[in-house]
Amino acid sequence: MLVIEELFWKIFRNKFLFNKIFQDIESTEIDYDNHKQINVFNKIKFKYLTTFGFLIQEEQYELIKCKLKNNDHISFNDTHSIRIFFNMLQMNINKNKNKNKNKNNNNNNNNNNNNNNNNNNNNNNNNNNNNNNNQNNNNQNNESELYLEESVKENFKEILTLILRKRREEFENRDLIREAVIHENYEALLILLNDEFKFQVLPDIIILALQTCKNPLIIELLLKSPYSVITPFIINCSFKSIFNNVNLNNNNNNNNNNNNNNNNNNNNNSNSYEKHEEAIQIVYDNLFFYEKYQYDVNNLQKINLKNLLLLKSTKLQNKLIDLNIIEKPDSTHLELFKFSMNFKSFLIFIKIYYKYFNNNNNNNNKSKINEIPKIIQNKINSINNGKVEGEGEGEGEEEDKLKELQRLLVIETKSLQLYLKYLMKWDEPIKGFKEFELVYQFCFKTFSLNCLKFLLKNNFKNCSTTTTTTTTTTTTNSKNRIKLSSKMFTNRSLSEIIEFLQFAYCNENNNNNNYLKLKSLNYEKFYFLNVFNYIVKSGKCNFKIYNQFIIILNKISKSIITKFKPPLTWNSILPDILNSDDDDDNNNSNNNNNNNKLLIKNKSTINWIFQNMGMKQIYNRFNNKNIFKFKSLELLQFYFKKMKAFGLKNETFLEIDTTESLCKEAIESCNLKELKILNEMDLSPIKPIDLNFSFFKKQRKEEKKEEKEKEEEELEELLTIENFKEMINYLNQINFKIISNEMFNSFFIAVLNSFPQLIEIINTTTKLRILDILKFLLNSQYYLDENETINYLLPLIFKFESKLLKDLQVYKYNLLSNQENGDVLYNENRFEDIFKIIKFWVNQIQQLFLNETSDGYGNGINIIFTRFLNHFYRELLSIKLIKKDQVWEVYKFINERIPSYLNDKNLYCTIRYFFICSPKFTKYLMLRSMIEIRRTIDYVKVCCDEINENNQFFITCLETKFLDPDTFTIDFIFKSDFDRVISRLVDQLSDYNRKSLDFKLNTNLSYFLHIRRVDLFFEELNKYFKILDRTTAVANSYTITTILNDLDYTTQELITPYNKIKETSIYYDIIQELNEKDDSLRHYPIEENLYLLMVRALNVNEIQRFIEIHYNHPLIHNKFLKFACGANRFEIVDFLISNYNVDFSEFWNSLFDSPNTDQLFQHLFNNYPDFKNIIDQSLSILKEKQFENLQILLLQLLPYIFHKNEYKHLYSKFLNHSNNIKQVLTEIMNLDNFNLLIEQMRNEDYTDDDFENDPDEMEFEEEEEEEDDDDDDEKDEEPVGDEEMGEDYEQQVQHEQQVEDEEDEEKEEEEEDDDDDEHLYNTVKNILNLEDSIKVIKELSSVDIENRQLQTNIFTISFLNGYSTLCEMILNYFPNKFQITKSLIDQSIRNSNIEIIKYFYNNKVIEKHRILNYVNQQLKNHPTFKYLHWLK
Fold first, then answer.
1. Which residues are paired to 1409 by β-bridges?
2. Rounded to a whole number, what is the distance in angstroms from the first to the last CA of the chain?
3. Is-contact 635 667, C-beta < 8 A?
4. Between the chain's N and C termini, which has fewer beta carbons within 10 Å?
5. CB neighbour list of residue 1395: distance below 8 Å, 6 or more residues apart
6. Maximum C-alpha span of the chain
7. Tens digits of per-residue pLDDT, 1311-1343?
8. Contact at 8 Å (CB) between 798 and 857?
9. Do 525 and 485 contact (CB within 8 A), yes or no?
């Protein structure tokens, strides 16, 4: 072992051998089973795997730990990396669960297949074995899940600890505590909050946890942490947040709850609050119990009373009530309380009742509002400390305490609602509490005998229904009357109800005093139908109880009971009749009533039904079809006789569905007697039902007796084949009349599975013709079972030759699944099984060929046999992971024995051959549009048409050429080398002669890169250009303009490698020679994805070779550089920059899309001054634009401001402090309404255009004045008549003269104002144009520069994205060029990106940039960030 280790290190340290080994590893191809695994992103070197999120997703935990320990580069700048990392525990759990689900589903499917294939006699054993296997699989899955969870958890903890110790500043580019809470990562919080790392928990995160966390332990961890900031707001909203947290609902037992009844579901609803209760207890213990924090009870947010009552802990309920956090409930909330609660819960109820429900009207003002009266409290104390008088000891002691306390509460509060709850709980009126009206209602709604006797004892008379002379009596009765439900008696037992009814309504035999008292109660009308339904449907009714009820019912006065006519005698079917009638009422007539059929077990039931035809429910049953089903055929016959006796028709009241179980049993038991009876009844054929003769036994001569008659059953004889022969012969005689076409299919399958040899005696052609015979013949299980069932099916082929030919003609085969983005379809058959079936059909064809002359079979049988052979050959080709050697073995076997019978020269077989030969072929075919058809329209289906030789196999697709089966034979695909086959395949499917320049070349090139065949990649390029050179007519028909339009490039001069290669490059002469030799334009649109694949698969020499081929292609070198930067291929970056003049300004913004921005920018900064110059130049341009904008703004704004009276003092400062202009301008720009003044100025259109005259406008104005003068002269020259002269004319002249004088005065004033404004403008302009002023404006323009041009500033982009290391790098490479400004701070705070501020705060950079005070002020004024512990 030591020798081997020593040898290993010798080889490992030898550079030549080390490089040689890794070259071989890179060049060695990996044989993948799945074509989807073949892609260019396989076999990436570890040094290129630097994205943290990608490594986590690929579960490369050991590689991450190795990189962290060795300080190798890992990029955390990807915004999703941290989220993926903190969600990795849940992500792995979900992934494992999905895997196990798929395994279980596969196991279940296999078990089902095994059950179907095995004989039915062994099904019970198989089911037991399968159940055991499933349990074992579940146990193994659970163990594997736990192991995987623990291993992933340990990896997570180790990785997080390493990151925080070695790369914390880079990793902490977002709030890690928040991410841990969002993803419910308890393990992460344990590490972040330990004493080593001391992460601070801000208040908003605690509130987030209270509102959303599923795990109460996370809440406890945050509240207990010494690094958590607990504020009064957290305390105030804590309980309400917990109660509103729907994620705390306990959903772990959802699967179990589905099988429980309603009562269990109600219990589960209360159990769902277990986590709420745990979380509430945690909050109380950590925020309220120890009085560690001060809080104001009045400020606590309220919770709903209903939520409080869901808590199980009375101690916790009591604490919350004392905190006064319950919303004031209304009277309806009182219904939430039941007197069935235990003693401790009732104490809570008393507290709640006096606090929220009691109006203190009956307390005689002896107690304070919302407090328990002393008499109640003293009684509670005495009950708690001792015993109530007369009470016993043991289990009933607490119940006696509860009863005494409830009675006391009712008496003290005089509440009718509480009294009703007391009566419902104890069924006993309170002595001395004279609310007889409520007792009366309760008595007759619930059939309470105790209450009835109480009323009689107290001589109560019901006066509520009669007119009383006393007004107060009527008021009291109407006030105290509570509306009670008419079905409150359902809590009574049947014996209690009968006892009450006998006492109340059959009391003539009692003493006269009680009878008279009962009559004085003035009974109300009662709906005895409800009572009747309850008694009958209770499940406990019997003959005795029913007769007692009928006797009572007959004695009740008709004025009291509603109209109702029950059956006179009891029958066990009566509850089913009532229940089914209710179902019909609820479901209406639209629903199927098959489930409502009533089973008739004996003749007495039939007699009872017809005796009670007058009962509404029974009559309704006769008006509906599907009413009854019968236990035996004899009962069915008896039922028909009764119907004839009553004059009823069979077809009106009975459908054959009611007899399907009898038909099923008769067929399965081969009972000819019953089958003949069914035939004589002339019923409709039996609808489809499942049959299986192996499960059933010969019917005994005597019917099974009732359960009580015999405990041991006699052994039954198994059915014999003779029984089945007799039954089939009889069914043949009647042409299977009693069996429907659909049912015949089930019958045929049952015979086939049990006694396949009897298939030949079934001679009903009409029934057999509707069978899907092809389905049986294509089912592999009939070829592989012990009975060799297929031999018994062969005669059907000869019998139904034409039908099979037609069915086979339309049979289709699918290559792809019909799901979205469906993959290749495979089956799970075994090679040995399908080969066995193929051998069977080969033998059949050989025998057919030998017997063809003697038997006289036509060509149709030969075609059918050939089709079955080819079908199973296709099934063979569709087996998952079948080897080409196996296919070749079968192919050879067939052709050696029956040459020319195998038809594999079709598109389906050809494509399958490619799939089997190599996943690389599958990869290519799936990339082509021939396979990737629009799946929303149709899926690839190949028709198996071998009858018509003129029909060819094809696939609807977008290609102009298809695969030629005559070219791509199995011999060519399997025996030729890969290069030859793929070259022919590409040529066959590619069209290089189209009139468009888009030749789908990108698809071929991408494929060769995926399989890492660079040689074939360049061969394809050479092949394309050779063909293009030959088709000069096509090339010359397209102008440069067309190409540029296709490339979306509009500049006149093309930026190509030819005109951008450096003269110092060793490739300069090569490019020049290429241009001199050939100046033809050979462009095609290269897809963006192809560049990505090339920078992944090609080295620098191969990149240069591609560029030389495309030396006149626009922007190709810039594209390579862009994608090489994103792929971290720095050797390609260095090569391109060294040999070509690249323009970083074209795409430097896109460099931020790289997952390794910091490493990429560091490489460019360190090695390429041009890149730094571009960044510097872009900043200079930005500053220059900002200076010009600010200069124009001030030139317009200052005159506008100085013109206002409230800013005259600023104008004087501006004039007198020309030497200190910075102070004045800073004061102006810091005005609170500075932005508002700008907006007002723009709205008033007050700009420098008012003071500077355009020469063109001045000329235009002079021309207008001249025209006006000419018009005036013309007017003056016009002669005026004497008739127009007069007084009116003189007045008009005077008025015009006056108006002209006024206008002149206004003009003079405006000219004076304009002169003042123009003077002000010129003054401002002169001062701003001074050299000192220009310097000041430039300085001020750079202050807010990031806020105005965010997308062109590398530092701003990095800062707002939280790239702390990149920002620090930029500041180091560009000292005094970039500033952390106030606008950056403000925007980062708005985005809650506080980590980047913390980074530069602790590094003193913010202090150097002279905004420390501003940062402190902004953070300390923030509602959350003011609690940051690192603030000074």
1. none
2. 62
3. no
4. N
5. 172, 173, 174, 175, 1362, 1364
6. 150
7. 555 566 777 778 777 777 777 777 777 777 765
8. yes
9. no
